[in-house]
Amino acid sequence: RRRLAPLNEDNGRFLLLAALIAAYLSAGATVFSALESPSEAAAQLRWNRTLHNFSRIFNISLPELRAFLRSYEAAMAAGIRVDALRPRWDFPGAFYFVSTVVSTIGFGMTTPATVAGKVFLIVYGLFGCAGTILFFNLFLERIISLLAFIMKACHERQLRRSGLLPPNFRRGTAMSGVGSLVGWKPSVYHVMLILGIFAITLSCCASAMYTAVEGWNYVDSLYYCFVTFSTIGFGDLVSSQNAAYQNQGLYRFGNFIFILMGVCCIYSLFNVISIVIKQVLNWVLKKFECRCCPKCHKSSARLGRRNAITPGARLRRHNISMDADGQYDSDTEGRRLSGEMISMRELTASNKVSLAILQKQLSETANGYPRNVCINTRQNGFSAGVGALAIMNNRLAETSDSR
């Protein structure tokens, strides 16, 4: 009877992360329910008491009063306020709206009311959000490259001070093969620390501006910065909504720059943190694998000891067809399936593949682009990940060795 194959590493990581996210959501819901539910119940009780007192004092029936309040809520949803506010759909207001759409912030204080506007928003957001996500990924790639350049310069300076690097060393010279610099990449933890410090500094500066201009307290300003920069965008606090400000043009420009840089920085930080979470998941999976490894892999380990060189398996990993018409004699096929003997044809083709890989690596190294030797050539264009995850895998040290 066939046994179910064990989950591979990617599927195991995915299921473990899904379970952890479900537990995280449940824990967060429990905490917020305990913190906010009493306040909500008390506010509802005060509102009902105020509503009945107002109806009794001014001799207005409750149905009429509730109908008036529903009209007021509809006016608020349309952007109408008692105090004077700036127009929502002039060009600056519309530009602010589309900026929150493509960045997925979505405050919700401005929404299209016409059918044509809603239809246009669907098409506009489809391409706008895709382009903005691409911009965030390109920003991540460049900020990681900049941090890698700076950290490598600091690493070389430290090596010079310790005497492990010649004083006349220059990048790109023939001496670039120094053992301490071959394949060097910045640490993901150092990058996370630098991005975290930059994000905190940016949030503190932006909060100081919002406290001075909007009149919020500093904690509310910090809360607004996190909600906005992380693209959560609740909409309970929204900047630049009053009718007039002192130095209004300068404030709007500063608000735009802070939001743009904050979203890019927090997006990069989130991706670095996700890599750290992935490493924790890999560590947990290895702990589980160590417990079940003697039972699950006993038979495969025994076969591996019988014949250490199996060109047939290597060629299957490289997806190379050994014969154009697919015809094999029974003796060759039997040897390939058993893994006991080596076919000369398979060994020759395997050597050709290894020689081609070696020539490519030597060419890249000679042109100044040294790469780590990769034995497993099974990977295709998507094997290292797509988007931000692939960028981090290619540029940071701890992630490149995890696969």
Automatic annotation (TrEMBL):
Query: What UniProt keywords are attached to this protein's entry?
Result: Cell membrane, Ion channel, Ion transport, Membrane, Metal-binding, Potassium, Potassium channel, Potassium transport, Transmembrane, Transmembrane helix, Transport, Voltage-gated channel
Q: Name one GO cellular component term.
A: monoatomic ion channel complex
Native organism: Probosciger aterrimus (Palm cockatoo)
Q: Where in the cell is it found?
A: Cell membrane
Q: State the reactions this protein catalyses.
A: K(+)(in) = K(+)(out)
Give the matching Gene3D superfamilies: 1.10.287.70
Q: What is its main location?
A: membrane
Family membership noted in the UniProt record: Belongs to the two pore domain potassium channel (TC 1.A.1.8) family.
Its membrane topology is listed as: Multi-pass membrane protein
The membrane-spanning stretches of this chain are: 94-112, 119-140, 188-210, 222-244, 256-277
Q: What is this protein called?
A: KCNKC protein
Which Gene Ontology terms describe the biological processes this protein takes part in? Answer: stabilization of membrane potential
Q: This protein's superkingdom?
A: Eukaryota
One GO molecular-function entry? outward rectifier potassium channel activity
Question: Which stretches make up the Potassium channel domain?
Answer: 86-143, 199-278
